[in-house]
Write a structure and sequence with these properties.
The chain is an all-alpha fold and about 70 residues long. It has three helices and no strands.
Length: about 70
């Protein structure tokens, strides 16, 4: 799956872009997304953090539903 997903992004490479910096940008962005997710998940160690994690999950679910409905 990862190879096919990477191929999909690579096929969208703009003509004027450098392939190395384009790929580096994806690697950095993916790492930052993972780090943010891990840090957000660590909030679940505290009672108030559990509420924030659940609220965040609800907002993500609501956003997905809006996309699904085309709104």
């Amino acid at each position: 799956f990862a190879v096919c997903h990477g191929h999909a992004h690579a096929s969208g490479l703009p003509v004027a872009a450098s392939p190395a910096t384009y790929a580096a940008g994806f690697v950095v962005a993916t790492g930052l997304l993972h780090l943010g997710g891990i840090l957000f998940g660590l909030l679940a160690h505290w009672p108030a953090g559990r509420v924030l994690v659940r609220a965040g999950g609800g907002l993500i679910c609501a956003g997905g539903a809006l996309f699904l409905l085309g709104l």
